[in-house]
Design a protein that fits this description.
This protein is an alpha+beta fold and about 160 residues long. It has a domain of about 100 residues: 2-Layer Sandwich (Alpha-D-Glucose-1,6-Bisphosphate, Chain A, domain 4). Helices cover about 25% and strands about 40% of the residues. A 5-stranded antiparallel β-sheet has the order 1-8-7-6-5, with helices on one face. Strand 2 and strand 3 form a beta hairpin.
Length: about 160
C-alpha cells in the first residue's frame, strides 16, 4: 500500500496563476475602500460586474464575471480576507477538482500612491475544461476602470 501511495504522491493538479499590477495616484485607504465596497462594482467594474454578498470574512459571495470576449461566468466563493489597506481575498471550490482564489494586494508607493496587484490562482483536474481565457485582459480593464473611479470620486 505504501508503494502505491508513494507512486502518486508527486502528482500535481493543473494550475494557472495570473498576476497583474498597476499604480494609482491615490492613497491606499481610498483604493481599498473602493475595492472593498463590492456593492458598487456594477457602477464601475467592467470585469467583476456584480458581486452579491457582504464584505465580511467568511461570507458567501456570488461573483458575476463579464469577460472581454463577452462571455459571462458566475462563481460562488467565500470572502477569505479583508485586511484594511492591504488585502481583499475570496476563493472557493473543491480542492483537487476545481479550486480558485482571487486577491487584491494593496501597498503604498514611494510617492504616496497605491500599487495594486490582482492575483488569481486556480487548480484542479477540471481546470483544462474551464474557460479561463481573457483573464489578464479583464484585469487590465479593471485597473483602468479603478483609476477612473478614483478620479471620479476625487472630483465629487
Amino acid at each position: 500500500m505504501r508503494h502505491i501511495l508513494g507512486k502518486y504522491s508527486s502528482f500535481r493538479y493543473p494550475r494557472i496563476h495570473t498576476i497583474t499590477g498597476f499604480d494609482i495616484d491615490a492613497p491606499p485607504k481610498v483604493v481599498y475602500e473602493i475595492l472593498a465596497d463590492i456593492s458598487q462594482y456594477p457602477a464601475w467594474n467592467p470585469y467583476f460586474v456584480e458581486i452579491k454578498g457582504d464584505s465580511v470574512e467568511g461570507a458567501p459571495l456570488e461573483v458575476h464575471i463579464k469577460k472581454p470576449n463577452g462571455q459571462r461566468a458566475t462563481a460562488t466563493p467565500r470572502m477569505m480576507a479583508l485586511k484594511p489597506c492591504q488585502e481583499i481575498r475570496w476563493g472557493g471550490g473543491i480542492r483537487g477538482l476545481f479550486y480558485g482564489e482571487h486577491a487584491y494586494l494593496i501597498s503604498e508607493t514611494v510617492c504616496s500612491g497605491t500599487h495594486v496587484i490582482c492575483q488569481e490562482h486556480f487548480e484542479g483536474i477540471a481546470l483544462p475544461f474551464a474557460q479561463m481565457e481573457a483573464r489578464e485582459e479583464g484585469y487590465c480593464l479593471l485597473g483602468e476602470a479603478l483609476k477612473a473611479r478614483v478620479k471620479h470620486l476625487a472630483r465629487n
